[in-house]
Design goal:
Elements lengths: L1 E9 L4 H10 L4 E5 L4 E8 L2 H12 L4 E11 H13 L29 H10 L3
Antiparallel strand pairs: 1-3, 1-4, 2-3
Length: about 130
């Protein structure tokens, strides 16, 4: 199960309308807002793909200027990572391999540069951990 917090931004004059829309939609749980139009909600999903679908629902609400994922927690992912950390080398083997050309290493951690987040999320959810 994944749980993520989302900061939703709207123009203050539409704040009450957007807050009510968020409370009424089934994609998220409303928590709080301020007078500047910042709203805090959480979403839950079985995987990243489901969370992205819910994020798209929030982004489509009228007068939402932005909806950005701020914090994410994945129970299964955390357990898998902890097992790897506890049973693995502190430094990945590839970092100690002098035969690997560093220009051939691809960093996939920056989601802002992903052309197709939905496909990325589906592939990420299938990754064995």
């Amino acid at each position: 199960m994944n749980i993520s917090s989302i900061v939703v931004q709207t123009v203050p004059k539409y704040l009450n309308e957007v807050v009510q829309s968020l409370k009424d939609c089934e994609a998220c749980d409303y928590h709080m807002h301020d007078e500047k139009g910042r709203i805090i909600v959480t979403i839950e999903g079985e995987g990243v793909a489901e969370e992205l679908e819910k994020l798209r629902v929030i982004e489509a609400i009228p007068h939402v200027v932005a909806a950005d994922m701020q914090m994410a927690y994945s129970e299964d992912e955390l357990d898998a990572h902890m097992e790897i950390i506890e049973n693995g080398d502190a430094v990945p083997k590839m970092l100690n391999d002098d035969t690997i050309d560093v220009s051939n290493i691809t960093y996939n951690g920056d989601l802002r540069k992903k052309d197709d987040l939905a496909t990325f999320a589906k592939n990420f959810d299938k990754t064995e951990r």
